[in-house]
Specification:
- The structure is a homodimer.
- Helix content of chain A is 44%, strand content 17%.
- By secondary structure, chain A is an alpha/beta fold.
- Chain A folds into three domains: 24-67, 434 Repressor (Amino-terminal Domain) (Orthogonal Bundle); 81-184 and 327-348, Rossmann fold; 190-317, 3-Layer(aba) Sandwich (Rossmann fold).
- In chain A, the strands form two sheets. Chain A has a six-stranded parallel sheet with strand order 4-3-5-6-7-14, sandwiched between helices. A six-stranded mixed sheet of chain A has the order 9-8-10-11-12-15, sandwiched between helices.
- The two termini of chain A are 42 Å apart.
- Chains A and B meet through strand 1, strand 2, helix 4, helix 5 and strand 4 of A and strand 1, strand 2, helix 4, helix 5 and strand 4 of B.
- Chain A binds a DNA duplex through residues 23-25, 33-37, 39-40, 43, 47-49, 52, 67-77.
Chain lengths: 357, 357
DNA sequence: AGGGTGGCCTTGATCGATCCAATGACACCA
DNA sequence: TGGTGTCATTGGATCGATCAAGGCCACCCT
């Protein structure tokens, strides 16, 4: 990274530092009660007589008291923090989805009395970040987001008995013959999403609907693909020759769609991502075909791009707000009853219909 | 928000809870030294004799010890956390810029030994989030990002003597006749960015370059606009009739560009945002004009959209990685020497040239 | 009257690290 | 032998909250 050579101004003195904030003892003295009573006024108000409570609350208000987090954390062995690792800032729609999720998570956590602590993955070992936070008891739990193909985090956290909820189903554990996941998870039913998209296109009169997805070793990709085949076969339509599996780049989507248009001549495309769908739009542009009017296209993720590209890209939208709600509620359950793992939760995406279909 | 009706599985028992992590005393006992010596081994290793140090370090490694964050925080009155508020998850390029910044900030903070705590703004009072974290000493400092037009956060934090660094210059304080800012800040020189963009277009042979920006009450918008006028006037070119100030939406950009094409007949557009630039692309599409070949377009923010829209949107790119570096370093300075406010830092953006110019 | 009961509040101990002042070990020198 | 300075190490106090007991008092019951 090349450092930008900055233009700087001049330094100058600053106003004095803040006084130390009031403590429980300060409030207690002012209200004429003991520390414990103040503590109860905050954590178990119904243990106090109404008049005492009022007196304490007034003292709290006057002094602007708020419990010291560190002290409380030490005593209660709790931090009210949820740790979440964010990957390197690669550009891409997956990243945008994560950002949208983070927003929802922060919002939902706040309502549950938690804050979100972000940490970066060390370049090397992916678990060092988790390990450090865990051993220093800096967070109460984790939200793990990258559970695709055999990533080590989930297994490692399970082994450490660390409380965490996964956004993403435990693919390995769900295979027949394997044990159930030993951790709670929330996921979006990708197959249902692509099925929704395909059904939408079928309704519009299309019957030659192509699929452009990811390589076969992507569990998520194959899951999404299965929704397309299910919808097609459900109508008695063949899928042979209509599918392509490529890298998740615009160029790949462009090539794949060009090839498919030349061979199977589909009138519509369902894609595993908005990125691939953008590739299709490129191809249509090259050939003077109008998206929506001549050839329909549906993407996946409802990214910013899908919303602004002319004429608007129809896309499967993950209900990330709902995911966050279920993640937090699973987290609360986990922390309240550590002995029981809540069941996995599968949510259904929706379809944002735009000009491209 | 409509709750998605989830499909759930079955609950089942979970593995036993983790044992309590080792403490300083455990390490001390195992290494045959006192607690303080272990503490020194961690915080001031050079105070120990090499052989003692080695013994302690081995004990630390064997037990997998890591200092309890809460205890350390309580004693040192520090949390190693940087608080940052994120706004509601509105969709837009501004949001995407912030997300890119958050990534960089998390990364840079990690290197400085800090974590990033995200919190959501309460719907009502914008300072309650700050206030709560501050009074409970949950964070060491804040990064304030939304410093545009007289927002109350900066002034409020200053008054509270809260340590914070702003991403965004203190517009009010920089006006002549007003005091200097009393807090450190880092910003990107928007005018330099649009000047860069305009100069780029001038080099390409354009001389009728239009501006589409935000309404006049936007400080950032006027700043970016000034770069365009500066570049134009520098070449002795007039700007009258070539500018339009609208809302930051695609529709506005579309209308404004359509209007300008009909009146001033520019051969190129410089826009205050990628969103507006997308509006221009829409207009060009409507009229069968090819971006880049027939009419050049430059956006601002180098968003995801700019990168994927055909044929690629040339855009001013903010050096957010550098911003994060300077923000964190200002933060470190602030926490190390609270009595001195470092000077403001202004960084220069770059231009990501793509097919649209 | 004595003892039990429950409501309300207080006291002392504790969480696990760091700060502080003091002690021990050791070499060196008078 | 005793003094002195340096340096590693020690024990105790502390940060500010909560937990676990226990005290006080009014009230009720037999």
């Amino acid at each position: 990274m090349s450092r930008n050579e900055p233009v700087v101004g001049r330094a100058y003195p600053r106003l004095p530092m803040p006084v130390t904030p009031p403590t429980l003892a300060d409030v207690a003295e002012r209200a004429g009660v003991s520390r414990q009573t103040v503590s109860n006024a905050i954590n178990n108000p119904d243990l106090l007589r109404p008049d005492t409570l009022a007196r304490v609350q007034e003292a709290i208000a006057v002094l602007g008291y708020s419990p010291n987090r560190a002290a409380r954390n030490l005593r209660t062995r709790t931090s009210q923090l949820i740790g979440m690792r964010i990957g390197p800032a690669q550009e891409g729609t997956a990243n945008a989805t994560m950002d949208r999720f983070v927003h929802s998570l922060v919002e939902t956590s706040r309502e549950a009395g938690y804050h979100v602590l972000l940490f970066a993955g060390d370049g090397g070992d992916p678990v060092v970040g988790y390990d450090a936070l865990l051993r220093s008891t800096a967070v109460d739990a984790f939200v793990v987001t990258d559970t695709y193909l055999g990533n080590p985090q989930a297994a490692w956290l399970e082994e450490r008995r660390a409380p965490f909820v996964a956004f993403g189903r435990p693919w390995d554990a769900l295979r027949p013959g394997t044990d159930q996941a030993r951790h709670p998870w929330v996921d979006v039913d990708g197959a249902a999403g692509t099925e929704l998209a395909t059904a939408h296109l079928l309704e519009k009169g299309h019957d030659r609907i192509a699929w452009i997805g990811w390589r076969k070793d992507s569990r998520i990709g194959e899951d999404r693909r299965s929704g397309w085949t299910r919808a097609m076969h459900g109508r008695g339509l063949a899928t042979t020759g209509l599918a392509s599996r490529v890298e998740d780049t615009i160029a790949s989507g462009r090539e794949a769609s060009a090839h498919l248009l030349g061979s199977a001549r589909p009138s519509a495309f369902v894609c595993a991502s908005d990125t691939l769908a953008m590739g299709v739009l490129h191809t249509l542009g090259d050939r003077g075909l109008r998206p929506g009017a001549d050839v329909a296209v549906v993407g996946f993720d409802d990214s910013q791009v899908a919303q602004v590209v002319p004429p608007g890209l129809t896309s499967v939208r993950q209900p990330l707000e709902d995911v966050a709600v279920h993640v937090v509620s699973a987290l609360e359950g986990l922390l309240a009853h550590p002995a029981v793992v809540g069941p996995g939760v599968m949510l259904t995406p929706t379809l944002a219909v735009r000009g491209s279909s």
